[in-house]
Write a structure and sequence with these properties.
Elements: H1 2-13, E1 24-35, E2 39-50, H2 53-73, E3 81-93, E4 101-115, H3 121-130, E5 135-142, H4 150-171, E6 176-184, E7 216-228
Antiparallel strand pairs: 1-7, 2-4, 2-5, 3-4, 6-7
Helix pairs in contact: 2-3
Length: 229
């Protein structure tokens, strides 16, 4: 009986003791960095309507081919031009109590142009608009290297987090210790700027479109847990 009791006491004392977590404070810091775009993209399209699918598609093909040829003549390369959407749908007349009646067909073909030659953005856009396109969805300036400005932004975010934590600790009559957990948030992406034009205006000769790439401000966030002493 005594041996059994002693063994039980030894087994209980051998169990690992859970570590005591230090008192802590968790804050979120934000940092920003400013970068200069080094590439652009825009999407333009041609919409055509015909009595038959063949008629609508053939007219669309002609206008899109003319647009692509004009862009290449202006210096755009094959790798810079990509078909991004192609669709065909019927134009229908709906009347109550009757089946829809097809009046014709609408064809839409969109192309996206990308280039690292920022200075050519306005010229290529103007040439595309003059060649027969009648829809546009947006122009976007981007930074090709996703790490550009990251170090600066993350350092600023860490400094912001520590400043917040130090202020809160001081207000609570505590001392801020070391960082024990750091989590990085997803950097915010710059917005896409929409661009629209009236269909009728597309028929006129369009000059270079005035566009400015400017700069982009990227935001970074970190969530940091600090010890409290």
């Amino acid at each position: 009986m005594l041996l059994t009791a002693a063994s039980t006491v030894f087994a209980q004392s051998a169990q690992p003791i859970a570590p005591v977590m230090p008192e802590s404070i968790t804050v979120t810091g934000t940092g920003k960095s400013t970068v200069t775009p080094d590439r652009f993209s825009f999407t333009l399209g041609v919409q055509t309507i015909g009595a038959t699918v063949d008629e609508a598609v053939n007219e669309n093909n002609r206008k899109v081919a003319a647009t692509i040829a004009a862009l290449k003549k202006a210096g755009a390369q094959d790798k810079d031009i990509q078909t991004s959407q192609f669709s065909i749908w019927p134009q229908q007349d709906y009347q109550e109590g009757r089946l829809p009646r097809i009046l014709g067909y609408q064809v839409s073909n969109n192309i996206t142009v990308r280039s690292t030659k920022i200075a050519d953005a306005g010229r290529l856009l103007g040439i595309a608009l003059s060649s027969g396109v009648n829809t546009s969805s947006g122009i976007q300036f981007e930074v090709s290297n996703p790490t550009t400005g990251r170090d600066q932004g993350l350092r600023a975010a860490i400094e912001d987090a520590r400043a917040k934590a130090a202020l809160l600790a001081s207000a609570a009559n505590r001392t801020l210790g070391k960082a024990i957990v750091i989590n990085e948030g997803v950097p915010a992406q710059p917005p896409v700027y929409p661009m629209t034009r009236a269909v009728a205006a597309m028929e006129a000769k369009v000059g270079d479109v005035p566009v400015e790439s400017g700069s982009q401000e990227l935001s970074y966030t970190v969530t940091v847990t600090y010890e409290l002493r």
